[in-house]
Amino acid sequence: MLTLKGEHIYLRALEPEDLNFIHDIENDESIWEISSTITPYSKFLIKQYLDNAHKDIYEVKQLRLVICDYDNVVLGLIDIFDFDAKNNRAGVGVLIKDNSNRQRGYAKEALSLLIAYSTTHLGLHQLYCNISEDNVASLKLFEGQGFYKIGLKKDWNYVNGSYKNEYLLQRIKN
């Protein structure tokens, strides 16, 4: 039985009514660093993206799910990207939009649900993520879910006039 439901949150597919939420996230310069974005997105482009969100992960190589609480409040997003069926691996990213909802266990629960889904339903052997060296909260989150630092990419991202190091973390199925 497919379950993307946790104790406090559930994960669901993108819906057309997520347009404004996605638009706000994609155009929030404070999080461009983690999404490697440098330009704003129009609602037109995001609508096109949502129109194609139903496509299969095997075709588009990614899956974006919405993190919601049981009052149906949209809290954030969790993504599988660079899906590689041949090598049974993919990247993972998670974002809780509002600071007031961070550090409350929502990302941890979403990541746990996604890990279970990735191994059980997608048959993935390995998940990985890229996290800035100074993003202590994200490093703690992913390490707490069985991801290990396997390398440090020096001067990897250019942010606000200086270079930042980025860790590569992996979680390999036992």
From TrEMBL:
<feature type="domain" description="N-acetyltransferase">
    <location>
        <begin position="9"/>
        <end position="170"/>
    </location>
</feature>
<dbReference type="InterPro" id="IPR016181">
    <property type="entry name" value="Acyl_CoA_acyltransferase"/>
</dbReference>
<dbReference type="Pfam" id="PF13302">
    <property type="entry name" value="Acetyltransf_3"/>
</dbReference>
<protein>
    <submittedName>
        <fullName>Diamine N-acetyltransferase</fullName>
    </submittedName>
</protein>
<dbReference type="GO" id="GO:0016747">
    <property type="term" value="F:acyltransferase activity, transferring groups other than amino-acyl groups"/>
</dbReference>
<dbReference type="InterPro" id="IPR000182">
    <property type="entry name" value="GNAT_dom"/>
</dbReference>
<keyword id="KW-0808">Transferase</keyword>
